[in-house]
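Is tetrahydrodeoxyuridine placement plausible here? Inputs below.
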Amino acid sequence: MKNEKELYEKLLNIAKEASKTSYSPYSKFKVGCAVLCDNGEIYFGTNIENASYGLTICAERVAIFNAVSNGVKKIKAVAVYTDKKDITPCGACRQVIFEFSKDADIIYNSKNNKIKVTNIKSLLPNSFCCKSLK
Ligand code: THU
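Reply from A.M.:
I modeled the complex. Tokens:
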């Protein structure tokens, strides 16, 4: 779908912009994320590190928590940008994405600077959700 491709390119560009404000003095690994919500709104975030390394938070979770803080309950797509290319969300972020969408598209930049699209269902198979407790 042409419109979807344009939208996903726009989302990845917003993620790229967000990566510029990365606070990553320890890893020097800049990550940006943009989240497209069900209501059409877009929120972004970047990774924020800490001298106490474990307190570091990924760009994806900053973006999603920003969306949720603004009243969002459902997301449609998550774009992640890094200079290193072919990076998809870490395991913890996959679980957080899954909380707010069982079917989110995940957009990222590939090695040849092409846009790649996968889905949370592929990245997090047999996922844990509350139904798993029943
Ligand atoms: N990072 C993210 O922001 N997102 C990911 O999906 C993977 C890792 C950040 C955390 C840390 O600041 C740096 O990248 C190196 O792990």
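Short version: The chain has one domain: 4-133.
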